[in-house]
Inverse folding.
């Protein structure tokens, strides 16, 4: 019995030792198998990524080739179009209609307004031709066609453009920038700044203009030489004449600077000589050449006619920021007299002087209210004065103070309905003051 027990214990111990020896080997084999399985999975994923990368690269190469082909075709198309039609053209302009009620000497009337088409033709980036016509219905019912400007702009440099032809005068701001009815905040021009006023409207000749950066600011300039003004009904006619009546040319221009953002301050000038005997104007049956011929016949030679110095200077300012539009202009002109006042036997022509100015404030009410109607409203206030000294007839006819209160409704950025009350205070005692209610629809295109 004791022997069997020893053998049983020995057998049990041997089995235990055998079991302990086999267990680590089995566990290690299982872990290695799992690692190998993971490595195979990672290898498969890596192969898939390599294949996907290769396909993406192939697609990118194909896209690049297609893009290069498309770019080449586009360049060829541009070159072909440039060779076939190098010109680009554009049409713009404006029109307006209205009605005016007056308690003065003028009758209540509808106004047919104006139609001003403007054409622009550009040849590459070298030359721009621009021209504007004005078509109006006259008081007698006939249609009047005027050439506002017709000019060639040679793009010499980023900072310089040479203008040749009939161009709007660079003197001041209103005529060159603000006179179109859909840009002008009121229904008419400030007193002294329209036809028959002190501000030059246009000239025929050459003009150099551009802008020059000065640090972070901008300096702009315009210098023109042209045929200049002539004597006429209102003393001096300041419109572009197709032919000069003397060999002296007018020099005019404007320089402006932006001292701060949104504020422009400018100064203008014009120096010219006008022919003292050139007051006669052509009628419907005669042209300028015939009138000049008659003047020469009466005076001997055009160059021998007496000349009068005409000098004009002024300044302007404009502040435009956000909803605010604030502007002011001042102009002063003098026409030198002729003859010696102390000579009892000589003819004396008295000197003439003009002065005009206005200040204007406009405010767009966008953002003031949530109402879409109020956001399109724009109240406007303008006050101006125009005076002439040296001729009693002109003083009685032109001397005036004018106050305007307006309210505009902007249907769109280029369509505006204007309403305004205008108070005209004439300085001549025999003229009755006038109050006018004006309504106008203006459209820019």
């Amino acid at each position: 019995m004791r022997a069997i027990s020893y053998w049983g214990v020995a057998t049990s111990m041997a089995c235990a030792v055998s079991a302990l020896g086999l267990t680590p080997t089995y566990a290690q084999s299982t872990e290695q198998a799992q690692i190998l399985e993971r490595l195979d999975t990672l290898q498969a994923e890596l192969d898939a990524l390599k294949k996907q990368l290769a396909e993406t690269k192939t697609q990118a190469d194909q896209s690049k080739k297609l893009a290069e082909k498309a770019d080449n075709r586009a360049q060829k198309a541009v070159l072909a179009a440039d060779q076939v039609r190098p010109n680009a053209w554009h049409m713009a302009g404006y029109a307006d209609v209205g009605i005016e009620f007056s308690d003065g000497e003028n009758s209540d009337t509808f106004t047919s307004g104006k139609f001003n088409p403007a054409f622009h033709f550009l040849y590459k980036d070298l030359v721009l031709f621009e021209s504007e016509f004005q078509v109006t219905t006259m008081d007698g019912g006939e249609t009047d066609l005027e050439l506002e400007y017709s000019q060639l702009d040679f793009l010499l440099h980023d900072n310089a453009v040479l203008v040749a032809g009939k161009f709007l005068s660079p003197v001041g701001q209103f005529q060159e920038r603000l006179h179109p009815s859909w840009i002008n905040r009121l229904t008419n021009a400030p007193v002294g700044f329209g036809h028959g006023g002190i501000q030059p409207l246009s000239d025929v000749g050459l003009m150099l203009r551009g802008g020059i950066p000065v640090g972070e600011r901008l300096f702009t300039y315009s210098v023109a030489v042209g045929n200049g003004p002539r004597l006429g009904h209102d003393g001096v006619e300041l419109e572009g004449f197709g032919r000069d009546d003397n060999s002296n040319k007018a020099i005019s221009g404007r320089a402006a600077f932006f001292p701060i953002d949104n504020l422009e301050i400018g100064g203008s000038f014009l120096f010219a000589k006008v022919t003292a005997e050139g007051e006669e104007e052509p009628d419907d049956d005669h042209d300028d050449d015939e009138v000049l011929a008659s003047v020469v016949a009466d005076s001997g030679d055009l160059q021998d006619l007496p000349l009068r110095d005409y000098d004009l200077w002024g300044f302007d300012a404009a502040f435009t920021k956000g909803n605010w539009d604030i502007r002011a202009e001042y102009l002063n002109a003098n026409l030198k007299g002729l003859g010696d006042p102390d000579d009892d036997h000589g003819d004396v022509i008295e000197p003439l002087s003009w002065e005009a100015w206005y200040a204007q404030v406009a405010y767009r009410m966008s953002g003031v209210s949530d109402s879409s109607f109020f956001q399109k409203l724009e109240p406007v206030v303008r006050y101006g004065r125009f005076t002439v000294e040296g001729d009693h007839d002109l003083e009685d006819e032109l001397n005036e103070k004018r106050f305007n209160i307006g309210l505009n409704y902007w249907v769109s950025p280029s369509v505006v309905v204007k309403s305004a009350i205008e108070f005209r205070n004439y300085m001549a005692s025999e003229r009755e003051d006038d109050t006018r209610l004006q309504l106008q629809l203006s459209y820019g295109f």
